[in-house]
Amino acid sequence: MVTDLLRSVFTPDIEHDVREPVFRFTVSQSAAVGLIPPHPTVMCALLPLTLVIISTVNAVVAVATYTIVIRRRGSIESRLGGYGAILPVVAILPFCLVDWLQTHNLVIFVGIGGNCAVLFFRCLMAIHGTLPPYADVDFKSFVLFFISPVQFKFDPQTGQVLKSSTADFLQVLLRTCQTIAIVSVLLPLLIQHSFQLFPRRPDLNNNFFDLFHWSHLLNNYAVASMTGHGLAAASQLVGTTIQGLTGMAVIELCDSPLTKSTSLSDFWGRRWNLLVHIVLKGGVYKPLRKNGYRVGVAAVATFVVSGLLHEYLLYLFSMKARILGDENSAPAIRYGIQSAFFAWNGFVMLVENAVSKHPLIVWMSNNLPRPLITAFVIGTVLPVGHWFTDEYVKIGFFEDLSLGMPMLVWIPSEGGNE
């Protein structure tokens, strides 16, 4: 009965978006702008239930990890229990949950798969003793570190979760509304133009110089901006909900990565998807450094693992075609291209670290306008940005995301009488 009830929520007939504008604003005699609300099933059922499910999973894994790993810390049994039981279960759990729920929406896939990936690295942190000090104070702090899909803010001195004041909550709510407003304009625009706002270069895969053509760079920037704002909007919705219900402060995943980054290290380490950065640093980088590996080796390994993480999510996404029974007609996913993207970023970061003390680089950092520095930083990865986003575009991820977002759409008038 529970399975049937959940599937009735997670498999509604929302594959074809038939929402209509609830408001229309006439902008000329020939056109109007319409506001399409989020799909009610997505906002009122899918997202809340997904949040409950993954929070429950997190709590169970936290208790198991504390019992098997933390209480036996330093013993062979702790390592065997972590690597032999907990990590394999967490790795296959998203496939079991998606198959059980029979969900069709790729945003739910991301929520389930991304959450379990974060859990996986948190478990590695527990196994290797690289947990943040505030998460290792006692059982309660450990569970709080694990349980939330977005990370709570902790006081590093006391290990206590920071409280959120009314003013803090209102500021977070305002930023959430601002992000959603950007998505509501940019997402329908990109969908309408098939994610190519500017002419696509015809020989992009074979002509090296096309990677640096202005139209290709602007297309990549637009889709990267949508990806960043979409990630921020989804996490802010979850974070605002949790912050409002619990009164606890949570971190924000993105901090203007495409407009304020001063280096590639700043982009990946302090501005883009901070939750993944935190768990990759604690679950991969710190254990390698702890075992004597050099900084460069640990950094490159972290980027390689990040690429494998995204390949893992792509493989999870392929289950949608199997659930819908259209494997033959579904677009083929290219595996390896996202790993190449992160490998390139790892290489560029090594070069950045090698030349960061050069007098010319120091002078540029101190004297050039910040927007120009940001342009240089983004320019190191923008030519290959499509390696990261193309698969998401191809499999319809952004269309699924649009179901949970308000959309401002351009409505031409019939007969020019609007």
TrEMBL record:
Main localization category: membrane
A single cellular component GO annotation: membrane
Key word Transmembrane helix present: yes
Sequence intervals crossing the membrane: 45-68, 80-100, 106-127, 295-317, 332-351, 372-389
Topology of this chain in the membrane: Multi-pass membrane protein
Residues annotated as signal peptide: none
Residue ranges the record marks as coiled coil: none
One Pfam family of this chain: MBOAT_2
Localization (cell): Membrane
GO terms (BP aspect): lipid metabolic process
Family: Belongs to the wax synthase family.
Protein name (record): Probable long-chain-alcohol O-fatty-acyltransferase
Gene source species: Seminavis robusta
